[in-house]
Design brief:
alpha+beta, 6 strands, 131 residues
Length: 131
């Protein structure tokens, strides 16, 4: 049985299986880098960059906290992203994983005006879950 092992020094090649799985699953731009090495950026079903880092990935590596933000520079400048730290089994920060944040990119007000019954549907679903 094979394993995916990610360490502080994982390369793009090491990170690619995880990046590919996440990117395939959610279908949006996906980035990952290890703590000590640049990583990989995937878009449209393929690797776009094998030596990738970005400002929010770097910030997560420094702070060890999940960050939702809009970068002011880099490939995703002006696009909302969410990046989270990845830890080893002993709690050591080993990598940062990010995606374009589609939820933040939605214009919620226009969505609600286009579908006025959506609030009722959400409330009904919530009530069913609480039964």
């Amino acid at each position: 049985m094979g394993n995916i092992k990610i360490t502080e020094n994982s390369s793009s090649d090491d990170l690619e299986p995880l990046a590919l799985a996440i990117h395939t699953l959610i279908g949006i731009p996906t980035t990952i880098r290890s703590k000590n090495k640049n990583g990989i950026r995937m878009e449209r079903g393929e690797v776009a960059d094998r030596d990738y880092t970005g400002p929010i990935l770097e910030q997560v590596i420094k702070t060890d906290k999940t960050i939702r933000d809009v970068p002011q520079e880099g490939v995703y400048k002006g696009r909302p992203v969410v990046v989270t730290p990845l830890h080893s089994s002993d709690g050591t920060l080993v990598a940062a994983l990010g995606v374009v944040d589609l939820v933040a990119a939605l214009d919620i007000l226009s969505l609600f005006s286009a579908y006025p019954g959506i609030i009722d549907e959400v409330e009904e679903a919530k009530n069913r879950l609480n039964e």
